[in-house]
Amino acid sequence: MTDDQMKLDRRSLAKAGIALAATAAVGAAATAASTPAAAQASGGTIKVGILHSLSGTMAISETTLKDVMLMLIEQQNKKGGLLGKKLEAVVVDPASNWPLFAEKARQLISQDKVAAVFGCWTSVSRKSVLPVFEELNNILFYPVQYEGQECSKNVFYTGAAPNQQAIPAVDYLMQENGVKRWVLAGTDYVYPRTTNQILEAYLKTKGVAPDDIMINYTPFGHSDWQNIVASIKKFGSAGKKTAVVSTINGDANVPFYKELGNQGIKATDIPVVAFSVGEEELAGMDTKPLVGHLAAWNYFESVDNADNKAFIDAWHAFIKNPKRTTNDPMEAHYIGFNMWVKGCEKAGTTDPSKVIPAMIGVSVPNLSGGFSAMMPNHHITKPVLIGEIQADGMFNIVSQTPGLVVAQEWSPYVADTKDLIGDWRPPMSCGAFNVVTGKCGSGAKAG
Amino acid sequence: MRRISVLLLFVLLALVQPAFAQSAEEAYGLLGSGNFDQVRRGVETLAASGDARAATIIAALQNGKLFAATADHALYIKQDDGSFAAAATGKPAPDIAAGAVKPVRVNNAIRSAMDAALGALRLMAPDPATRAAAAEAVFHSHEPAALPALAKALAHETDPDVKLKLQQAQAAALLSSPDASEADRLAAVAVLADRGDQDSRSLLDGLSGQPPSVAQAAAAAIASIDRSLALWGILQSVYYGLSLGSVLLLAAAGLAITFGVMGVINMAHGEMVMIGAYTTFVVQQIIRASAPGLFGASLLIAVPMAFIVAGALGILIERSLIRWLYGRPLETLLATWGLSLVLQQVVRTIFGANNQDVGTPGWMGGSTMLGGITLTWNRNYIIIFAVLVLFALMAALRFTSLGLRMRAVTQNRRMAAAMGIRTPWIDALTFGLGSGVAGMAGVALSQIDNVSPNLGQSYIIDSFMVVVFGGVGNLWGTAVSALTLGIVNKFLEPVAGAVLGKIVVLVLLILFIQRKPRGLFPLKGRAVET
To answer: Chain A residue closest to B380 (CA)?
Structure first.
């Protein structure tokens, strides 16, 4: 099968998915209308697992997600719970320790008998719990943008795949700013390496010469950026418009941006587009020198609509601090949780083996003013937004994709995975189906 | 025939006057449209219109003070007192409520357009610094459209520095202009070659469609700029190394006391640094709330505060935990490591897991050029601070009575006790001194790193590395080793990459310790063996 036919297949798959989503939405509305009658029939609670680090390095990002889950569960209980039962949150702390994630996941599923788990941030923690979820056949909702190249039956990926974040951002810079030279800077681990591999292949298909791509990796928590920023400056002095695509993670961002400001690199000279910097990260920074640098997400707090305003107000009331920001992974949990609720209502039970097939096609409102649908590859449809950092630490949305983008779980730009698709509907029921050989590989295979 | 042409000229002149007004009018419409592309065109149109208010309006847009009415897109400028004035006339508009207008939003394309426009408009400003900045902005935009304005400004310019900048801007614009003569272009290349920085290199490298002689001259200029930049690059790396070394020295100085002098393997050392950084945050919060005028001095106030807070905590830790564990290094290691986790979690519970925003006072931001190297001010101050801390610490150990007692106790505990020194208190004070110095390091690190509960973790390994490499118990050794490690790191990084560079440094260090287990400057004498 040629590449073109492949694309066609993906597209028709997407169309089928959207049609499915539409019918499912109607169906789900019907079930939702009929549930109140069945409500209050039985006692007991439904347990929901929350697997986010509350201590250690990742606590900075993950604690907020635990709080937002508690808020969503509280809200759902005020609306009458799920299937006539109250929801009960079971919070565990895997302490930013990857093997402990697997242990805690096993505890949640076998001991606490949770109906679903919402959790993980880093890809390595997700990879660590994946075998547990597959073995015990439970559900994980994973809310963070990631590198793709994975499609498990038991995981619902509510964060962005690379084509829902990285590639539209690069397209924006290419078209709007005429960028010709690229610095791909990242922290040295699986997400930046895979994303940069995909981006490098993508840029080459767009005619960018290998000399015009510079790739740089730094360790976790890197704090001395002086000569890396200087070398970026030097790379940018070749007479072509240059941009930095940053997959720098977590704590390393603050010193990186500070150094950019100190060396006087302005967004109008060399813009930096980041995939891991959101409102939460900017909250600890003086953003004045950063005005104009970009971030690509599927949600920004500054999205201007009634749903988002209600969400932000509820969040401020729940956390009792009007200064706390909202961010993209929080929206992903909002979507994921609502999808799970709908999926359970559609299946009429919280039994994971029945909920998993029912999830496909479920469609719920997202916070950027539209609907997101769960596709057969267990990823969701999302709009892509590009924002510029403003002096107040919020993002000024400068571009938005006209429609929703369907996730490509297997990148078509990587030779090993370009023929793979994931489709968990019977009869295929496969996370890594090779359309050339017609065989089904392992769904959890790394890229 | 001539009459007709004269007539035509008159018609044209008559048209030009309203055309000015009309283009300003059009620019106002574009600026209020709310569409990024149109706002950018609005900025360009307004700058070209010759409208007297152009500079004021564009400056207001740059500072986020330009507002458009939601109803009719009319433009208003927000005044310092919060009221609005009509943008076109500058007259106050008291009946405009804050809710009826929205700020005009900008993106990077508009920001570039504003820089270029303001540059061209301010070339004749009365203040020489403004003129120099304007010339720099025109240099960056190198729009041929600015050439007439540049020529006019050059004719009037008297300040030699500004004149040079104007000539450079003119050269940049000339090279981008399609109809400059070959001789002009060659002269322009020469001007840029003289300037000789990365921006000129970038400009020369980006030239296209030049006559062969000009292209040749540009290539030669690029080669010469590259040669001089390579030389400066070495000096720049030395500077980066010194600045990394000064950070390492600050982080390790406290440990050189607690581990080096007292021999306590203190894994909670990093947390003392972290607590110093949080003290800075708290001091700044108080200043922001009660005396915003003092903000520039907030770091100077934070230094003694951090010393006191971290030092007091150190004394508390020594009295409650460490004194029970002297002579049992393994237990000390485990206990202090546990303590570091406790301290992290306590801070996380009090302040939250998020990074805290520690502000940078104005005098610490930005950078300056020394020849071809960029010196960033915050790094310069940290280098100075590190040197000051080192000398203060040495002086304290050598010239104060407390220092004398500390040295006496560490050299021969029993003899010191026999002389009437209360050794337990000296232990506590020594540990407090080491912790206090770590707290002061936290003030400096808050300027370059995250203020989060994890701050200390990233420095603990490096600190031990510095102290061991330098020779335990020797402050000079610590200083030399910090600077050596910093410079080696910065020279390896561009060659091997940041990740591999760190590994190489670690391997070299292990080999060195194999050869010289006591580090660079081992202490000599009988006291060492105890």
So the answer is: A262
